[in-house]
Design brief:
The chain is an all-beta fold. It contains 1 helix and 19 strands. It has 2 domains: 164 residues, TolB, C-terminal domain (Neuraminidase, 6 Propeller); 74 residues, Single Sheet (N-terminal domain of TfIIb). The chain has an 8-stranded mixed β-sheet. A 4-stranded antiparallel β-sheet has the order 1-2-3-4, with no helix packed on it. Strand 5 and strand 6 form a beta hairpin. The longest helix is centred in the middle third of the chain and has 5 residues. It holds the Pfam family MRJP. InterPro entries: 6-blade_b-propeller_TolB-like (IPR011042), MRJP/yellow-related (IPR017996).
Length: 244
Amino acid sequence: MVGNCSHVQRPVSTGWDGISHLVVLDAGWQDKCSPKVLIYHIFTNKQMEHYELTGVDAGKLTALVVDTVTLPIGTRAYMGETRPGMLAILDLPTGRLWEVSLSTSPFIPPVTPSSSLLALSGHHLYLASHHSDTLFRLNLTDLRASIPLSSTNNQTVDTKMEGKLLGPPQGLVVDPWGSLYYCLARDYVCVSWDIHQPLRAESHRVLLQSAELLPDVHHLFLDLQKQVWALTDSNNGSHCVRVS
């Protein structure tokens, strides 16, 4: 219900805790409804938690992945931002929110990573942008070491440039076997890259190419069987298309 801030206003990304909970990032609505993170039980469809991200501008957060790290750290959600070079972290047990800066030294001139698209693998978090073909990654060990600070100074996490994708991606997700999936708007195609191989064209596989089925991909996600689906938009509404 638009304007009723207790309801989802603009869902932009979802994550799964690997057990039974769906985590939804709501980007908020205008100046009235702040962004929030909602947690639902997959099997009962009941809302379990509601984290209001007070002080965050509507539309600032663009993507979410869930890191089910072990105790005592607990579960965290990493959220991409429209502001380059920044990543937001939400501690799900407590609802504490903080940011880290993404450093890519020693590149000259400096390269500023974008986190508007996120994909989580076993040991790394991959970052990309709808507007660039550059793929970055950071080590989850470094990211998990980040803790909320009482000061306003952001912590810095070292970020590596992985290489160049085949074009600016639409959607980004990694399956448990190490294949990173993304789609290309210009060719109406979804491809996969084996993250254990160098990021080159020959390390890619074409999975689905269709202007009819993939007119405009908004999101890629894994189902419970680890199959990849694309959420697309067209004049006939939104649809889910199986990619692999």
